[in-house]
Amino acid sequence: MSTVSPASRTRIHQELQGQTIIVIGGSAGIGLETARRASAEGAKLILTGRNPERLQQAADEFETLRTAAFDATDSAQLDQFFQDLPGPIDHIVVTAGRPNYGRLIDLDSGAVRHALEQHLLLYIAVARNSIHKVRPGGSLIFMGGTGGRRTALGLGIVTTMTAALPALTASLALEVAPVRVNLIAAGFVDTPLSATLLGDELENRRNQLRATLPIGRVVQPEDVAALALHLMTNTALTGATYDIDGGQQFVAA
Predict the structure, then answer these.
(1) In whole angstroms, how far apart are CA 86 and each of 15, 20, 39, 89?
(2) Do the Cβ atoms of 64 and 86 come closer than 8 Å?
(3) How far apart are CA 229 and CA 13, in angstroms?
């Protein structure tokens, strides 16, 4: 197993030291782990989430500048959150939202709109609000997935989002430059959300992935958080999609 050298850790630490990072969806899973790692590297954190109790637990674990409990898909609340920010921001990570499964022909207009609000519309709104808020060279990091690259019954809206998000990311990277915009496309990640979605089938899914993935293990929130920090600190990266699924898209998993 590879390790991070002390020199590499020092470099990352110096690049994040004193920087301010917003994590939208930062009270659990990938968002929480990203905030945890960024804090350990010297960053100052602003966390948002829907659940006030989980946000408070995060604030108790490591120092935060502030927390804000609201629904990020509510455009009025999101706009107000950005208007109330006390100063410039260096990076914004958006991990809020969840997949919406079901056949397209069975989804009513409300369900389709909700799916769009959780991803496409949210990312556009964050990018719009980042103008004059994020420092030049800072970054926006969005979450997508790799699972929807295979069309299957019941994945219609997920497949649509999977195809749309890389194009959206590339377009926004041009529009909000010199702020950088990148997309993390994850496969199955062992998070509380995954546990909620799978219920009693969670352990079976873990075992299946351990047996079939080229990496021989299940992707963890720490893996995705490490990639997010790299996208923050490598200022040559923008407009691109970065897969992190342990090779899941290449095997029958």
Answers:
(1) 22, 11, 19, 9
(2) no
(3) 10
> What global pTM score does this model have?
0.89
Tell the burial category of 127 from Cβ atoms under 10 Å away from its Cβ (0-12, 13-18, 19+). buried
Q: Is the pLDDT of residue 241 over 50?
A: yes
Q: What is the pLDDT of residue 14?
A: 62
N-to-C CA span, the chain: 23
Superfamily of domain 6-244: NAD(P)-binding Rossmann-like Domain (3.40.50.720)
CA 114 to chain centre: 18
**Domain boundaries defined on the chain:** 6-244
Peptide bond before residue 166 is cis, with ω within 30 degrees of 0 = no
- CA neighbor of 127 nearest in space, from 176, 73, 186: 176
> For residue range 141-151, what is the model confidence (pLDDT) as tens digits?
999 988 777 77
What's the whole-number mean pLDDT along residues 149-164?
78
